């Protein structure tokens, strides 16, 4: 298997469209982590992603008859741009099927490359099924985003470059993982030439399909309702068959990282390169940092593949909010202080010489226990300082750490300021729905039939999915009907009625 792929990678003529990207030193990150950190800058490709390598290699190897008929693919965006550019370069007709919630930045990028776009379905699977049906009805050749030997070989040219660019000591290469095309090509090449070097894949916690497959010993399909699309470039329900074979043989391990860790990694990459990568593109750095913290390694040479930079600018607001928590530089705390003059000043003295990032409070005439405040406090980027702050405050105040509470981070911190008195039968739900025209209206139309919405918070984060926090008055006898309505809507949801952030600030 390895020798066949090595031959394919060496023969992959991708440089008609791709560029040999630099392997940059990440000076700030290296100093902070005590290791030599290098970044393979695939975000600098003409389509701001590595995907054009595999797409071009596949299309360039088609027969003359296949090229005349044209190609079709389904993609969340980066592979679509790769296929569109490759087809444009070779003078071939390209049809791209994309989900209806695809970010505008990726739609406009594909349009500029003269490819025909078909918007179909709410997720990759639905788009892929439609694209494959066009191979039958129209005679197109399907260009799979990852489960194809020629695509994998094209992506493997990344490894060929980085081993030429860095010939010295090398310990670990960290690679983002979606369907497995990039890590398949990189791992087989690295392990063939440098078997001593570890190849570690990195996935988002909410879309870790390769981790789940390796754990189960077979490919598994993640439930659609559980798939987190934050790192949309790697949000794949099931890895490819060929990719899984390569992973079992050549990948050392898979690291899963949280949304906050991804956001922090985006900031790390920005600080060293002054460029902003997409969430999927920052996975490798997030995994690299987790690995260093876990293994306590120092003085090693670690390479992170920065795989892409296609992201809506609007998402930066949400990412910047979560970055401080991802680096554990901010604690989000619920603290009870006396409802009397001078309490805030005394509280600030207890915190010491730290930066308060926010302070949310509203006077509550019914409170008998004191004033409930939601406060953000910056700490040093280590667990020792964070723990010291928490212990210091707990000696003087009742306190709840909400730093890892999704309801508090996404919603409550923007809502503090009022309570509803004498409100009965209220339940709290958190929803995610596809961010497309009409989605919010459909949500409200179904829920608005017979149930009173007592609280509502929605913010557009520029992502593929909108996030809503809703308080709804539901009498016990109507609960079954309400749950049926939720099934009709079909959006992901979590009941948060018992969430401490809700109980502390909104009840």
List the helices and strands and how they pair.
Blueprint: H1 2-11, E1 23-25, H2 27-33, E2 36-41, H3 51-60, H4 64-69, E3 71-74, H5 78-90, E4 94-98, H6 104-111, E5 116-119, H7 124-137, E6 141-142, H8 149-165, E7 172-176, H9 181-193, E8 198-204, H10 209-216, H11 241-250, E9 253-257, H12 259-273, H13 283-295, E10 301-306, H14 315-326, E11 330-337, H15 343-351, E12 356-360, E13 371-378, H16 383-394, E14 399-401, H17 406-410, E15 426-434, H18 439-447, E16 452-459, E17 465-473, H19 479-489, E18 492-495, H20 500-505
Parallel strand pairs: 2-10, 3-4, 3-6, 4-5, 7-8, 7-10, 8-9
Antiparallel strand pairs: 1-2, 11-13, 11-14, 12-13, 15-17, 15-18, 16-17
Helix content: 40-55%
* Named CATH topology of the largest domain: Rossmann fold
Number of strands: 18
Uncertain runs are: none
Q: What is the makeup of the main sheet?
A: 6 strands, mixed
Q: Briefly note the structural class of the backbone.
A: alpha/beta
Mean pLDDT, as a whole number? 88
Features:
507 residues; Rossmann fold; Alpha-Beta Plaits; 6-stranded mixed β-sheet; 41% helix
What can you tell me about this protein's structure?
The protein has four domains: 2-49 and 149-324, Rossmann fold (3-Layer(aba) Sandwich), CATH 3.40.50.1100; 51-142, 3-Layer(aba) Sandwich (Rossmann fold), CATH 3.40.50; 328-404, 2-Layer Sandwich (Alpha-Beta Plaits); 426-505, Alpha-Beta Plaits (2-Layer Sandwich). A six-stranded mixed β-sheet has the order 1-2-10-7-8-9, with helices on both faces. A four-stranded parallel β-sheet has the order 5-4-3-6, with helices on both faces. The chain contains 20 helices and 18 strands. It is globular. It has helices at 2-11, 27-33, 51-60, 64-69, 78-90, 104-111, 124-137, 149-165, 181-193, 209-216, 241-250, 259-273, 283-295, 315-326, 343-351, 383-394, 406-410, 439-447, 479-489, 500-505, and strands at 23-25, 36-41, 71-74, 94-98, 116-119, 141-142, 172-176, 198-204, 253-257, 301-306, 330-337, 356-360, 371-378, 399-401, 426-434, 452-459, 465-473, 492-495. The longest helix is centred in the N-terminal third of the chain and has 17 residues, at 149-165. It is α/β, with parallel strands linked by helices and 507 residues long. Helix content is 41%, strand content 20%. Helix 12 (259-273) crosses helix 14 (315-326) and helix 18 (439-447) packs antiparallel against helix 19 (479-489).
């Amino acid at each position: 298997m390895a020798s066949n792929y090595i031959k394919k990678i060496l023969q992959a003529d991708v440089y008609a469209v791709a560029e040999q990207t630099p392997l940059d030193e990440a000076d700030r990150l290296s100093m902070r982590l005590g290791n030599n950190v290098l970044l393979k800058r695939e975000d600098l490709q003409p389509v701001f992603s590595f995907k054009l390598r595999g797409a071009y290699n596949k299309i360039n190897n088609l027969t003359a008859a296949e090229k005349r008929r044209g190609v079709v693919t389904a993609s969340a965006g980066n592979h679509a741009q790769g296929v569109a550019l490759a087809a444009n370069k070779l003078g071939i007709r390209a049809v791209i099927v994309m989900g209806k919630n695809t970010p505008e930045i990726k739609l406009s990028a594909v349009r500029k490359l003269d490819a025909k776009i078909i918007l179909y379905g709410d997720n990759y699977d639905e788009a892929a099924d439609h694209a494959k049906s066009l191979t039958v009805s129209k005679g197109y050749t399907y260009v799979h985003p990852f489960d194809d030997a020629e695509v994998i070989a094209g992506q493997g040219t990344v490894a060929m470059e980085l081993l030429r660019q860095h010939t010295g000591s090398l310990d670990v290469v960290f690679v983002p993982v979606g369907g497995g095309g990039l890590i398949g090509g990189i791992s087989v090449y690295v392990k063939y030439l440098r078997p001593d070097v570890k190849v570690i894949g990195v996935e988002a916690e909410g879309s870790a399909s390769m981790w789940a497959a390796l754990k189960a010993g077979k490919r598994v399909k993640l439930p659609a309702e559980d798939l987190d699309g934050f790192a949309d470039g790697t949000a794949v329900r099931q890895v490819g068959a060929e990719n899984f074979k390569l992973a079992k043989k050549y990948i050392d391990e898979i690291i899963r990282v949280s949304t906050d860790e991804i956001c922090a990694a985006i900031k790390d990459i920005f600080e060293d390169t002054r460029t902003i990568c997409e969430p999927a593109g920052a996975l490798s750095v997030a995994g690299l940092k987790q690995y260093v913290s876990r293994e306590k390694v120092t003085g090693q040479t670690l390479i992170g593949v920065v795989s892409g930079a296609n992201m809506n600018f609007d998402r930066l607001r949400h990412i910047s909010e979560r970055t401080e928590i991802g680096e554990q530089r901010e604690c989000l705390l619920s603290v009870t202080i006396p409802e009397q003059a001078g309490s805030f000043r005394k509280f600030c003295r207890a915190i010491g010489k730290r930066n308060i990032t926010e302070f949310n409070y509203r006077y509550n005439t019914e409170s008998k226990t004191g004033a409930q405040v939601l406060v953000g406090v910056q700490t040093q980027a280590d667990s020792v300082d964070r723990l010291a702050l928490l212990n210091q405050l707990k000696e003087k105040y009742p306190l709840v750490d909400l730093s890892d509470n999704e309801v508090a981070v996404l919603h409550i911190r923007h809502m503090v300021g009022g309570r509803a008195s004498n409100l009965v039968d209220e339940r709290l739900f958190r929803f995610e729905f596809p961010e497309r025209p009409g989605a919010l209206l459909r949500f409200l139309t179904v829920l608005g039939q017979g149930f009173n919405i007592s609280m509502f918070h929605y913010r557009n984060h520029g992502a593929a999915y909108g996030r809503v926090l809703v308080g709804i008055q539901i009498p016990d006898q109507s609960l079954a009907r309400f749950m049926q309505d939720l099934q009709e809507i079909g959006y992901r949801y979590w009941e948060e009625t018992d969430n401490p952030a809700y109980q502390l600030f909104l009840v």
